[in-house]
Amino acid sequence: MRHGKKFNHLGRTSSHRSALLSNMACSLIEHKRINTTVAKAKALRVYVEPLLTKAKEDTTHNRRIVFSYLQSKEAVTELFRSVAPKIAERNGGYTRIIKTGFRKGDAADMALIELVDFNELYNPNAEEKKTTRRSRRSTTAKVAVEAAPVAEEKVEEAKAESTDSTEEKAGE
Q1: How far apart are CA 15 and CA 27, in angstroms?
Q2: In sequence order, what are the residues at sequence separation of 6 or more whose Cβ sits closer than 8 angstroms to the Cβ of residue 128?
């Protein structure tokens, strides 16, 4: 019986499991979403959400704690610089697991695990980028008007050069 044993060992030794979860957490932080099995995704969610909570407060102590779990300077930097400001208002539930079907080779149940605030499709509150657009007609008209005399001058210069070069060849 397994009474009170909530931890999924994923069929690995303790050191292998911690290395697996550390690498998956680094990949999740860097790429914002990864494809894996459902069991690994659920284990990863339990592993990475406390790290995301620690990243909300940027202190040296929290950085060292997160680094002790991730063992990757790039992942820690990405977590504290770009991920933490986006999840600052959220009180948990930083990841989403979406089941994607079964793997072809061994029919393992597959899932997509992603950071909630980095998905544009499911996040309707995301701020859209505001770009200043100018009317195309006015800019293309100005370019066409300015380009016409320049083009005519280039054509005249090219004709003059070609006649000069033919005269030089004839003179030789």
Answers
A1: 18
A2: none
Residue 172 confidence (pLDDT) above 60 = no
Name residue, tokens 């008209």.
141
Rounded to two decimals, the pTM is: 0.69
* Cβ atoms 30, 79 nearer than 8 A: no
96 closest CA partner among 135, 140, 42: 42
Note the pLDDT tens digit of each residue in 94-134: 999 999 999 999 999 999 999 999 887 776 665 666 667 66
Residue type, position 96, single letter: R
Distance CA(166)–CA(170), nearest Å, equals: 6
Measured torsion, CA atoms of residues 68, 73, 75, 80, in degrees rounded to the nearest 10: 90
Tokens of 107: 């029919």
Token code pair at residue 102: 């079964």
Task: Output the DSSP codes for 65-119.
Answer: HHHHHH--HHHHHHIIIIIHHHTTT--S--EEEEEEEE-TTT-PEEEEEEEGGG-
60 has pLDDT over 70: yes
Q: In this predicted model, what pLDDT tens digit does every residue of 9-54 receive, in sequence order?
A: 999 999 999 999 999 999 999 999 999 999 999 999 999 999 999 9
Whether residue 75 contacts residue 30, with contact meaning beta carbons closer than 8 Å, is answered with yes
